[in-house]
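Re: the request from the purification team.
They wanted to know what the chain is likely to look like in 3D before they choose a buffer screen. I agreed to run a prediction and write the result into the notebook, where they can find it.
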Amino acid sequence: MRSGEVAGSYCPGTYDLAIDGYKFCGIAQRRLTRAVAVQAFINAEGCGRAYGEIIQSFYKTAAQGALAEQFPQVQPERMASLSELGVPGGVAGVAARLRELLQTEGEASFSLLEACPPWLVREAESAWQMLKGRQRHLVGSS
């Protein structure tokens, strides 16, 4: 697996994830004064190329009349799903692995906040506990 921009993929960025040059995941972060949001798309199953063709068609329709260099030039063949890349489990497997990681690694992420002001650490810990309570049915009962 490799991280870094996959040229020709849709939504290309620094935090793309690829196997053998085929993008299956894109991760985006947004940092604000008192918050961080991390979002990802993961092509777990299905046809990555077909998804790429849909996005390519969208850009061509949306950019009618624009020069080619003014909108992303998607190469659908640069995309794949994890199932196409030989990773078993599909959507259910990816979701189970993410839940497992959140249960085992999630709390450790607060050690990264040691350089933050104490009020921000307290606020982050409070928000974490609230989210865990809300999402207990998704993450499990720990």
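For the purification team: The chain has a mean pLDDT of 82.
Please add any questions underneath this entry.
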